[in-house]
Amino acid sequence: MASAGNKRGRLRHHNKKAKLDEVRNEINVTPLVDVCLVLLIIFMVVTPMLARGKEVPLPKTLNHASDPDKAQPIVAVDKDGKVYYDKDPVGTVDDLKQTDFQPLKERIEAVWRSDDSVPQRVLFKADKGLPFKDVYPVIIAIHDLDVGSIDLGSNELKNDE
């Protein structure tokens, strides 16, 4: 009899059905971490591509236009006098003076010939510490292309500065 009682006790124990659909109180963090890491990688790869043109410290202005970028060509001059078309160096101001800025002009005109939707404007950015004698020849060379307008790049001067 004792063995039957033990057997019955075991049967009762095994007859209890496990509930698989019970709500759990803990969060499964693994998928959340996976998604966050993928998003982080995407932002790390895409962010450098968002900035157009060579980064130079720009002068600050009170009357700052906030027009959206119209994909016009970007010309930049850094503190050493190096001239860049977008992010590609095309030479120094002194070197380009000798060739009448022809390499720069050819790059700008090639963009306008290849895509009619690009406006006949150029965004010009110059380092804020650069003397005007190094900026002026580049502006005149761009002006000689008969552009619609030359947009001068600047940063907005905040009220607390």
Give a nutshell description of this structure:
The chain is an alpha/beta fold. The protein has a domain at 60-156.
Primary descriptors:
five-stranded mixed sheet; about 160 residues; 5 helices; two-stranded parallel ribbon; elongated; alpha/beta; 7 strands
Description:
With 161 residues, this protein is of the alpha/beta class. The protein has a domain of 97 residues. The protein has five helices and seven strands. A five-stranded mixed β-sheet has the order 4-3-2-5-6. A two-stranded parallel sheet has the order 1-7. A hairpin with a 4-residue loop joins strand 2 and strand 3. The model has no long low-confidence stretch (mean pLDDT 80).
